[in-house]
Fold this sequence. Notes:
By secondary structure, the chain is of the alpha/beta class. It has helices at about 45-50, 75-80, 95-105, 120-135, 150-160, 180-190, 205-215, 230-235, 240-245; strands spanning about 5-15, 20-30, 35, 60-65, 65-70, 80-85, 170-175, 200-205, 215-220, 225-230. The strands form 2 sheets. A 6-stranded mixed beta sheet has the order 6-7-8-3-9-10, with helices on both faces. It has a 4-stranded antiparallel beta sheet with strand order 2-1-4-5, covered by helices on one side. GO terms for molecular function: ATP binding; ATP hydrolysis activity. Keywords: ATP-binding, Cell membrane, Membrane, Nucleotide-binding, Transport. This is Amino acid/amide ABC transporter ATP-binding protein 1 (HAAT family).
Amino acid sequence: MSSHAIQVENIVKQFGGLRAVDDVSLSVPVGERHVLLGPNGAGKTTLFSMIGGQQKPTSGRVTLLGRDATRLNAHQRTHLGLGRTFQITSLFQDITVEENLQLAVMALSRSRFNMLRSVESFAGMMDRVNELLETWRFGADRRLPVKELSYGDQRKLELAMAVANQPKILLLDEPTSGLSAAETATVVELIRGLPRSVTVLLVEHDMDVAFEVADRFTILHNGKLIMSGTESEVRGSRHIQEIYFGDSA
C-alpha cells in the first residue's frame, strides 16, 4: 500500500488554447487533510475534477492509493475507495433523508442489482443507515423529504452520503458554501471528527474554515502550482499574500 493516498504527476488540462491546469504535481499522504487554495480561475475545480474522475487530463497521471486511476471514470474510482461532494447539492429532493442514505449505502453494494437479496443483506444495510442517521444527527428527520431540510442540513446530508461506504479518500468541494456561521461550525466539527484512516482533500474559499481543518495547503494561480506548505508557511509567504489575498503591502 502506498504511503500516499493521492498522487498527481505533471497533470495538464487544456481547453483549446487555454491551459486551465498547467503541469501540476501534488502528493497527499494517507490520513492528511489537504486544502486547495487559489483565486477564482486558478484551476482548483478543474484539478479537483480530474482527481475525482469527472474530467480526463490532457496529459499527466493520477494515482489513487497506489493504483493508476488516470483513465478510470468517476464510478470506477468510487470502487477504489473515493467519495466526494459537489459545490451544488446532488441529493434526491423528493424522497426522505433515510431513503437518500439507503441509496448511498446500496450504491457500492455487490448485490445492488440483485432483486433476490437475503434478509441479512437488508438488515446489514439498515444497520449502516441507522448508524449514519445517529452519527450525523438526522434521527428526528429521517422520514422528512430532503426538500424540507434547511440548506445547511442538506449539505450535512450530502457529507453523510459521501462517507456512507467508508471511503478511503474524501473529496469535498466547498462543503461550507452558502452556510450560516452556525451551520459552518457544525460541518467543520463533522469534518474534523472523521477518522484519520480517511484522507480528505478540500476546495474551500472560506479561509477560516481552511485554516481550521487543514494540515497542509496547495496554492494554485493561473493553472500553476505556486506552493504547497503548512498554515504558517502560507501565512508567512508575501507572494501568496499578494496573489491570493490581494495584499501587496
